[in-house]
Amino acid sequence: MFRREIKPLGEILQRLLREEGLETPLLQKRLVEAWPEVAGRMVADYTGETSIRNQTLFVKITNAALRSDLTLMRTQLVKRLNERVGAFVITDIRIY
Predict the structure, then answer these.
(1) Is the pLDDT confidence value at 1 over 80?
(2) Residue 92 is inside which H or E element, if any?
């Protein structure tokens, strides 16, 4: 008789995602989807495109005054977004 090593399904899926190179894109997608919740509903209403390149989140804001306020809050937003997804996904935010 042989013994099987029983592992939680979450651990198996995490390892599979990592091995297939899908972990980072999945975390990036979760981070982009978390933007409205972390930044707030009002900011989300003025948000255009969002994308991640080279560990930088690019966010298009259509209101100039709001864009200036968010630029000052970049470090706080980076920290809150990374905490929200539970991983170090981005290092900076560029608001344009």
Answers:
(1) no
(2) strand 92-95
